[in-house]
Design a protein that fits this description.
Strand order of the largest sheet: 6-7-8-3-9-10
Helix content: 25-40%
Number of helices: 8
Order of helices and strands: EEEHEEHEHHHEHEHEEH
Number of strands: 10
Radius of gyration: 20 Å
CATH class: Alpha Beta
Strand content: 15-25%
Number of domains: 1
Structural class: alpha/beta
CATH superfamily: P-loop containing nucleotide triphosphate hydrolases
Distance between the termini: 39 Å
Bound molecules: adenosine-5'-triphosphate, magnesium ion
CATH architecture: 3-Layer(aba) Sandwich
CATH topology: Rossmann fold
Length: about 250
């Protein structure tokens, strides 16, 4: 079953009168429910931009080119109002941002619990779930630390705990192992794989890490704002073409 389907996704940034950046130049992408997909490509190729659009954080361009389409769980997302997009993000999606986006004044535990709060879960339930999520990424003993009191890799793992705490249908992670040494990176990858297998969670991982890409079911390559190969492989012909059938008959 298709979970996410995007067509004609474009994103243009205008900086002043003369400087236009075509971050996405028309992307078609389809993600199946339960898939673990890597998005790879050079710096500036549009990976984060695509992730932000698929995660309903930004809308695609509406005013030039063919009309964009984006559906999540079979529902159209392009026409949706900001309130409903926010609700879907909070309840059904988890994000790991490239720069973590932790709240500096809150502890690790409070940062994770914030995701519960947005999803309408509070009190003891949120605290228990947040501690369990921190434990999952090996940080139960850092629950009371603020981001400035954590290493880059630890902050990244707090961000991952926050993305996983509500067991969202879809996790979008931008370089989730970018600040981790290879041992930690393998652990995080194993955790993500386990969540994917046990909870059927769909994962979209932007990565430069070959080990992460190799562990995914599928790799989407981006270059210069476009997907570098078909997002959906051409169906394999199961029967020989009629002309060949005749020739071999
Ligand atoms: N808010 C913005 N304003 C203007 N230009 C932007 C903005 N965000 C991204 N861009 C530009 O869009 C292009 C794609 O950026 P994006 O962040 O999607 O790349 P990326 O593939 O994630 O790169 P990296 O691997 O370095 O994270 C880049 O050229 C970037 O400079
Ligand atoms: Mg990026």
């Amino acid at each position: 079953m298709t979970l996410l389907d995007g067509r004609n996704l474009r994103k243009t940034y205008r900086l002043g009168r003369s400087n236009t950046v075509h971050a996405l130049r028309g992307v078609d992408v389809s993600i199946e429910s339960g898939e673990m997909v890597a998005i790879i490509g050079p710096s500036g190729s549009g990976k984060s931009t695509l992730m932000h659009i698929l995660g309903l954080l930004h809308g695609p361009d509406l005013n030039h080119g063919p009309r964009p389409e984006l559906s999540f769980g079979g529902r159209d997302m392009v026409e949706l109002g900001e309130g409903e997009r926010t609700r879907i993000r909070a309840r059904e999606m988890g994000f790991v941002f490239q720069d973590f986006n932790l709240v500096p004044t809150l502890t690790a535990l409070e940062n994770v619990a914030l995701a519960c709060d947005y999803a309408g879960i509070g009190g003891a339930e949120a605290r228990t779930a947040s501690l369990a999520a921190l434990d999952l990424v090996g940080l139960a003993d850092r629950a009371g630390h603020r981001p400035a009191e954590l290493s880059g890799g630890e902050q990244q793992r707090v961000a991952l705990a926050r993305a996983l705490v509500n067991r969202p249908k879809l996790v979008l992670a931008d370089e989730p192992t970018g600040n981790l040494d290879s041992e930690r990176s393998s652990e995080v990858l194993a955790t993500l794989r386990r969540f994917n297998r046990e909870h059927g969670q769909t994962l979209i991982l932007v990565t430069h890490d070959q080990e992460v890409a190799a562990a995914c079911d599928r790799v989407i390559r981006m270059r210069d704002g476009r997907i570098h190969e078909p997002a959906v492989p051409a169906p394999i012909a199961l029967r020989p073409a009629p002309a060949l059938e005749r020739a071999s008959a």
